[in-house]
Please model this.
Amino acid sequence: MEVLRKIAIQGESGSFHEVAAKNYFGKNIEIIPCATFDQTLAETKAGRADFA
Model:
């Protein structure tokens, strides 16, 4: 069973960052869209995302 990874991205669903995350991590991910790169790091630091 694959682990569901939470990925914080800068941008919205459908953005290039989401496509890149799916290409890198595979399809079994949860996307956490963020307005800024700083927010992606904050989500990761707070434990709400596994990667940014």
Summary: The chain has a mean pLDDT of 95. Strands lie at 5-10, 29-34. The first helix runs from residue 16 to 25.
